[in-house]
Design goal:
Carbamate kinase; eight-stranded mixed sheet; about 35% helix; homodimer; alpha/beta; 11 helices
Chain lengths: ~400, ~400
């Protein structure tokens, strides 16, 4: 069996943890499996390097920033390889480019174009454990690129896809995917299995277990994922195409506070207004999530939509000129909001998921500002201060009934 | 004019110093020159990385150690490039392999096989300042290698040689090459020029201004070097094939305390003994410097020679069996010695250099244990505790007469 294992920065933060990872890896190798390990930079290394750069140039080019940050994983792969050597196992570390990661040239958030796993394969053939630097690759100009935050998950899935690995294990500081954040909701349950689509909704909605791009890639190439703990040797949560029905209507309740609500009041009620608004937002490379349009009694209309919190300024800037031109009454944004969602493939066949959620929120006295639904989720926008209370109330309604 | 500039770890130790280097570099660029800058890892980075590795595995493989250490220069080139960007100049940083450094596979002390400066040339053609990671390269297996301590000097000279640079400037924390260590001998004078051969003797003898390999390479390819200060903008010392005669008999007085004296007493007085001794030492990859052989009155002979201080143990280990076999009376080594030398191409044509040195040592009451001479130097082995006093006395005799 070929297993790809990925460990994040906190799993390799110091000598002790690096040795712990070496034990997990060599245990699997000893069982006779081929093992490829993808690691991130140690603990705060990336932040420390960013800090160093800012001291010298607050606006250094992204190319040089990628050159700088890629040093972080270089350190961690060498240290992990030495820890594995110390336990007496054959091992080799490979940088992103040595492992065959070819990316486009969008420095700081490059996309993997393909993985050419020749060197990985050659090393596995020699029965070596292969330690690969996550988060980094090489573009067509032979410049070092990075995949952006969370990119190591994607690196691991990309290797698993390119090599048709049997399993891609993502080690984190939680034991798996839960029905809600276990630090906030004590009754949250760990899921045995979840589908790619459910996981995607949960990741997008701020569950922060897996990087979104990595789940998309796993779905596309049919890579079976497992989310599990690097500290506790218990089974995690499997992410796959079809998950076992666990007699649960929904899989989880997620909270996302990285949201800003943009409001345009008093737009003329004419055709094509929405198109003009959202094409301007799209041109500014801002993702829009929930959209609400309402017609007022005075014959004008209001448009409200949500964007990532740090894009509120940019969204307003992109729309200011247009709103002035058409004589909108006001254009503003508000960051004191949060999105709470329930996710589950099962809700397609069950009516009443939304109403059960709304009932729970009403009982908890949480006011709903906006609503958005898809086949496998229901999201509501509420005041940020109500978010934790809303998650608990909704979780209780679905899982503790 | 194409100028290669090299800055060591202390010259880029923090943000302020990185910005200072950026100023020096851009000043030269502004004068219309093409500039390639070679930098080492910041300050203690290399030592810190070694420390991290030791915590995990005191005997990590050299391959992984090179992978680890190469991250150090990666950080410094990115930071320096960002500092130059911040001053508004076009710049690009390149890792050893990107700059075309091909080495052999002796990890930790790789030799440069060739430099393929295509990318450097392309960047210079676009009028960019090119910042190159010193100390590192790539072997034929596409693995990262390092050149060993002081290797960044060699990197700079190799680029200068490959690109036929007009000048290779090595920036240090001293203002140039002195007639003696200026921290120990207040009257030491800075030299305007010195020949490669003289510099080689001084480097070998512990003057610690330039890495030896870099001077050898500069001599071989006729690269004109300049040693100068990164803190004070004054002319340094030029190192070239023929140096101006500055009416000095010698160029400098150097002290080397990295010496151990190995003594074998009571060897049989037969032909071939010396060959058998030194072939064993050579097989153990230990460099021998001064050799003294003497025949005792009892028909046995003694052999004494010097090796680098940390090789004393190994030298004795390499000889123990043989010495036992031939019945030598004793085999031991002593590290409380130092080598003091005078160096200068001028002494070839002057008799009396050695006698002037011996006279000065005698007047200072310094006992000479061993003597070695070449065309351009005279070295004596003395007690380590006498070394500083000996240097002062000899320097006074030659320069303050």
């Amino acid at each position: 069996m070929l297993v790809v294992k990925k460990f994040g920065g906190s799993s390799v933060a110091n000598a002790e943890r690096v040795m712990n990872v070496a034990r997990i890896v060599t245990d699997t190798y000893r069982e006779g499996h081929d093992v490829v390990v993808v690691v991130s930079a140690q603990g705060d290394t990336t932040d420390d390097l960013i800090e160093k750069a800012k001291e010298i140039n607050p606006k250094g080019s992204k190319r040089e920033m990628d050159m700088l940050l890629a040093a972080g994983e270089q350190i961690s792969i060498a240290l992990l390889a030495m820890a594995i050597e110390n336990m007496g196992f054959p091992v080799i570390s490979l940088l992103g480019w040595q492992a065959g990661f070819q990316t486009n040239s969008t420095y700081s958030s490059a996309r993997i174009k393909r993985v050419n796993p020749e060197r990985i394969r050659a090393a596995l053939d020699k029965r070596k454990i292969v330690v690969v630097a996550g988060f980094q690759g090489l573009n067509r100009y032979e410049d070092v690129t990075t995949l952006g935050r969370g990119g190591s998950d994607t690196s691991a899935v990309a290797i698993a896809a390119a090599m048709h690995a049997d399993l891609c294990q993502i080690y984190t500081d939680v034991e798996g995917v839960y029905t809600a954040d276990p630090r906030k909701v004590p009754d949250a349950r760990k899921l045995q299995e979840i589908t790619y689509d459910e996981m995607l909704e949960l990741a997008t909605l701020g569950a922060q277990v897996l990087n979104n791009r990595s789940v998309e890639m796993a779905k596309k190439y049919g890579v079976e994922l497992e989310v599990l703990s690097s500290m506790k040797a218990v089974p995690g949560t499997k992410v796959k195409e079809v998950a076992k029905m666990e007699e649960m209507l929904i899989k989880g309740v997620a909270k996302d506070t990285n949201v800003a609500r943009v409001m345009i009041v008093g737009l003329p009620d004419e055709p094509g207004i929405a198109f003009k608004i959202f094409s301007r937002v799209a041109k500014a490379h801002i993702n829009v999530d929930i959209i609400l349009q309402s017609v007022g009694r005075d014959g004008t209309k209001d448009i409200t939509f949500t964007v990532p919190q740090d894009k509120g300024d940019e969204a307003v800037a992109a729309l200011q000129e247009y709103c002035d031109m058409v004589g909108a009454k006001s254009l503003s944004y508000d960051t004191s909001v949060a999105k709470v969602s329930v996710v589950g493939a099962g809700m397609e066949t069950h009516e009443g998921t939304a109403s059960l959620m709304f009932e729970a929120l009403a009982a908890a006295n949480v006011n709903i500002q906006m609503i958005s639904t898809s086949e496998i989720k229901v999201s509501v926008l509420i005041a940020a201060e109500d978010a934790d209370r809303a998650v608990s109330a909704v979780h209780k309604a679905f899982f503790e009934a």
